[in-house]
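We were asked to recover a plausible sequence for a given structure. The inputs and outputs are reproduced exactly as logged, with field labels preserved.

PROBLEM: sequence recovery
POSITIONS: 135
GIVEN STRUCTURE:
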């Protein structure tokens, strides 16, 4: 009879260990997923910072090649789409929206004939995005 009592206890212990292992694995996977998303955000924000630098140079050289500014703005838009697709974080989404609005304002200024639009709002918004993406 003592042997029959041990089997259920062993089985219960084995089931409990299996459940704990599954829960631990799920927790680690979720944690890694959050870290991967943060790293993706940081890498993309870094790429956006490079695009903002390109935009600054393009605005400075607008007389030589006005298409450079559009290319830099397109690059920023593309990277913002990448961040939006990979996150549901409210702060990151707000920073992306602010940067998107700043990019739209610069595009409008260029379209309206401003050869050297003020890109300070783009620079500020990109800095904010970098801050909220930093883990």
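RECOVERED SEQUENCE:
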């Amino acid at each position: 009879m003592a042997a029959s009592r041990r089997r259920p206890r062993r089985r219960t212990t084995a089931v409990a260990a299996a459940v704990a292992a599954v829960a631990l694995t799920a927790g680690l996977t979720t944690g890694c997923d959050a870290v991967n998303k943060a790293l993706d955000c940081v890498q993309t924000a870094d790429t956006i910072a490079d695009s903002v630098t390109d935009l600054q140079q393009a605005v400075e050289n607008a007389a030589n090649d006005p298409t450079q500014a559009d290319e830099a703005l397109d690059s920023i838009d593309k990277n913002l789409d990448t961040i939006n697709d990979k996150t549901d974080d409210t702060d990151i989404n707000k920073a992306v929206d602010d940067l998107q609005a700043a990019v739209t304002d610069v595009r409008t200024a260029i379209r309206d004939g401003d050869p050297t639009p003020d890109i300070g709002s783009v620079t500020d918004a990109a800095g904010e995005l970098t801050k909220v993406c930093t883990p």
